[in-house]
Amino acid sequence: MMGDWQVYWLFLQQGIASGLVTGSIYALLAIAIVIIFKTTDAPNFAAGEIFMAGAYIALYLLIFSQIAYVIAVPVTLAITFVFSALFYRIVLRRIGVSPAVAVNVVIATLGLSFVLKGIVRNTGFGDVPRSFPAVFGADTVQIGDAVLTTQDVAVFALALLAMAIFFVFFNYTRTGRAMRAVGMNPRAAALVGIDLHKTRMLIWGLSGLLSALAAILIAPKILMTADMGIVVILGFAAAIVGGFTSLPGAVVGGLIIGIVENLVGLFVSTRAIVVAPFIVIMLVLAIRPQGLFGGPVVIKKV
Amino acid sequence: MTRASYIVAAVAAGALLVLLPLLGSGYIVYLANLMLVYIVLALGLNILIGETGQFGLAHVAFYGIGIYTTAILTGRFDVPFLIAAAAGVLLAGAIGLLLGYVSFRMRDIYLALSTFAFGEAMQWVYRSWDAVTNGPNGMRIKPAELFGFRIATDHDAYPFVLATTIIIIAATVWLRRSRLGRAFRAVRESEPAALAMGVDVRRAKVIAFALSAAYAGAAGGMFASFSSFIHPDSLGFTETILVVTMIVVGGLGSIPGAIVGALVLGAVQELLRQAPSYQEILYGVILILFMMYLPKGLAGAVGNLARRAG
């Protein structure tokens, strides 16, 4: 007979393994949220709905148009990239980007989230919950005492690969460095010849692409509805834990949130999973108002 | 506008408000009650976001505290309606004070997200605490009794709801002109400058949180006076966003703006109900267009027009 501690040890391993898988998705979402916040000075409250729309575009291409995965996935990513970039170009460029109009930017992104939800509900695909076809089988892999499916392992590997590509792009290409410069100091970036609007537009596109990628990876594991964008709350929680302006922080935050979520499900109750991210957000901010990995609070001088 | 035209407008609006229950059907009066509740909600959130510059997103959680407290005290404990509603205001204010204490160190995005999280957690409480809120089935609200009169219809509740709203508007105007109101705006403009002028920034922020929550609690009591049912689904983030949009569309930091914004968006919501399948899309488009073309809200637009007219 297994002792209590053996069960806990098993739960712990399983929670960490499953948590790393879902956490890698939250990390992608947190990156998508953080790059926009750093360059636009406002959070994108439509992140969840861009994620949801990405999943539905992929579903439409795969199921209703019978297009092969290798074509459907890049096409989905391209569509969300262009759409998000256009949202910046048409709407946000007019509203402007500065802390003074942050409220307006937030409301515009909320407007976008209503529009996207409404569109998906009206297409007829959003009426009933749907499931997304999986590429990888449901064969199981044992790691320690934890059991994962091949699909879980593939999701984790692909998410890590995407993050690796993203970091190389951000650190070693001209465009990526321009994006970082705009995030650090837009005025100085403009002085050295970086086109602020073009760079921000690319950032929005890239953020949309990352959200859609996260959606395609996680969609087979969850039920699809027009309200599935709620998953992105966990991306926000991850970004907060990571300090909201730090990309490595976002990745670590995503993994922590994934693991905490799974452990809460195993040790506390599945009902508590729904409220756990909000409690984590409040606790982290009550103890450290600038996030776990955020730098000291800078008070702007008059 | 001249002083005389202001008076004419005020008298006309007053006459309309008084005559409304005589002219309107039950549905119209119900809408009028709801709009008045929205006005109080918007005025309360305007104190926090518009005047003090603190981006709190938990407003509807406090509205829920007001509604549930009133409903539970009158329904289960036979407490007189006014005392129950006052208890709702106090409880909402007290929890707002606590939230203010926890979050006065946070700024911008962190404040927005932690209050958002608080709002979501409270909605979860309303949905899950079956013993107290009757959980996801929603809760019936007992018809209120005021000074011996039983409020059975929207018509009966209207005078009470209208009078409360007028008192609250007057209190808000007084607050805006008070020392505290000036302290709020000083905090919004610049915390270091406010500190340097001797404003207790922390106290101002915490009071703004508590006051704003108390307004929402009062709105909850008003809602409980004419509504017979409350469901946790109507106390979510979408409702908070509706109130945020009201004050931004009206013009942040302006009392007439908050009132007009509440009326305009309340009306938009009701009109969109006529086209349920396009409701979300149209609402989203309206929000985006407002932000693109009227960034300073209706109050700002009217100000610009007046300036141009000379």
Salient structural properties:
heterodimer; A: 302 residues; mainly alpha; 12 helices; 71% helix; 3% strand; globular; B: 310 residues; two-stranded antiparallel sheet
Quick structural gist:
Chain A is mostly helical and 302 residues long. Chain A has 12 helices and 2 strands; from the N terminus they run ααααββαααααααα. Helix content of chain A is 71%, strand content 3%.
Structural class of chain A: mainly alpha
Strand order of the largest sheet of chain B: 1-4
What strand line-up does the widest sheet of chain A have? 1-2
Strand content of chain A: under 5%
**Low-confidence runs of at least 5 consecutive residues of chain A:** none
Shape of chain A: globular
- Helix % of chain B is over 70%
Mean pLDDT rating of chain B: 87
Q: How many strands, what sense, and barrel or not for the largest sheet of chain A?
A: 2 strands, antiparallel
Helix content of chain A: over 70%
CA radius of gyration of chain B: 19 Å
* Coarse shape of chain B: globular
What's the SSE pattern of chain A? HHHHEEHHHHHHHH
Notes on the structure:
The complex is a heterodimer of chains A (302) and B (310). By secondary structure, chain A is mainly alpha-helical. Chain A contains 12 helices and 2 strands; from the N terminus they run ααααββαααααααα. Chain A has helices at residues 4-40, 47-64, 69-95, 102-123, 150-172, 174-184, 186-191, 196-218, 232-241, 247-267, 270-273, 276-287, and strands at 140-143, 146-149. Chain A has a two-stranded antiparallel sheet. In chain A, helix 1 (4-40) packs parallel to helix 5 (150-172) and helix 1 packs antiparallel against helix 8. The longest helix of chain A is centred in the N-terminal third of the chain and has 37 residues, at 4-40. The model of chain A has no long low-confidence stretch (mean pLDDT 85). Chain B has 14 helices and 4 strands. Chains A and B meet through helix 3, helix 4, helix 9 and helix 12 of A and helix 5, helix 9, helix 11 and helix 13 of B.
